[in-house]
Specification:
Blueprint (H helix, E strand, L loop, with lengths): L1 H11 L7 H20 L4 H8 L3 H8 L7 H10 L10 H6 L7 H9 E8 L10 H9 L7 H14 L10 E7 H5 L5 H14 L5 E6 L13 E6 L4 E7 L2 E5 L2 H17 L3 H14 L1
Parallel strand pairs: 1-2, 2-3
Antiparallel strand pairs: 1-4, 4-5, 5-6
Helix pairs in contact: 3-4, 8-9, 11-13
Length: about 280
């Protein structure tokens, strides 16, 4: 029963897709699941028991009202003897939890061998604590409903698996000092976020750098962006503002973005100086 409760709690965090395109993927998966379950002669309650979910949750997934977790998809494929028909949809279903403008970026993050991000307003989503995420999402206007907030929190936490991948991708983050001083969510939230950054910055494949407020020269004046490199050297540049995104793929544009990022890194504090600075900011709270 404990396992079922744990699965149910996790499922509630991933309840529905963000938009119509996401709904289409989830609906198609649900129809396929129902067809395979019916062919196997299993009632929802019995099938749910075998995969660790309630019959009600199975119904929600089959009707496209809830996004199934990867573990559910894998177990369902096994129980129904689907031979990979369900697991083949796993990545597409997972992408449905993201806003449509971010889905291509989420896929690229999962394939990155190198990721370089420059941030100016809030801490990068890959580095956010759960408390910081909730605080940021609750500030959005128009207001997000609680289900959407839970969905996006779950999605961001899932993205952070990038730190556990092997071979480990090379990850570089440069952030403006101002965003490390903003009391978004309150002092306790900021304190937890700074402590988390300090721990992440000690990982061998991660370099965190702070751009000090006192810098008189900053190549990042055009705003935040991320450069991603895939295996084979293919590069992409992603930028986002006001719920709109721009993904550049032309080599001349991505090369310029990578060069700009290199200049920004050279202007920022070194990784060790940055960790010392974060420790200093923590001491001031």
């Amino acid at each position: 029963m404990t396992e079922v409760r744990d699965e149910e709690t996790a499922a509630r965090r991933q309840q529905r897709p963000e938009d119509e395109s996401g709904t289409g993927v989830v609906t198609a998966f649900g129809r396929q699941l129902k067809l395979l379950r019916t062919r196997a002669g299993l009632e929802r309650a019995e099938f749910g028991k075998r995969v660790g979910y309630s019959g009600e949750t199975v119904a929600s997934i089959e009707q496209g009202r809830r996004i199934p977790q990867p573990q559910f998809i894998e177990k369902a494929d096994e129980v129904l003897g689907a031979g990979g028909l369900l697991t083949a949809l796993k990545e597409e279903v997972a992408r449905a939890q993201y806003p449509s403008f971010f889905r291509d970026m989420a896929r690229l993050e999962a394939e990155a061998v190198e990721l370089c991000a420059y941030d100016t307003l809030v801490v990068n989503g890959l580095l956010q604590t759960e408390e910081y995420m909730r605080a940021i999402l609750a500030m959005r206007r128009p207001l997000l409903d609680e289900e959407t907030i839970e969905l996006r929190v779950a999605a961001r936490l899932a993205r952070q698996e990038i730190f556990n991948r092997w071979p480990a991708p090379l990850l570089s983050f440069v952030m403006e000092e101002s965003l490390l001083r903003r009391l978004l969510g309150g002092k306790a939230v900021l304190q937890g976020q700074l402590e988390h950054l300090f721990l992440i910055g000690e990982k061998r494949n991660v370099e965190l750098q702070v751009m000090p407020l006192a810098r008189e020269d900053n190549a990042g004046v055009d705003g935040p962006f991320t450069v991603i490199t895939r295996r084979g050297g293919e590069q992409f540049m992603y930028a986002e503002v006001q719920g709109r995104s721009n993904l550049l793929t032309r080599r001349d544009e991505t090369s310029l973005a990578a060069a700009r990022y290199g200049i920004i890194r050279s202007q920022a504090l070194s990784p060790q100086e940055s960790l010392d600075h974060i420790a200093k900011l923590l001491g001031e709270l």
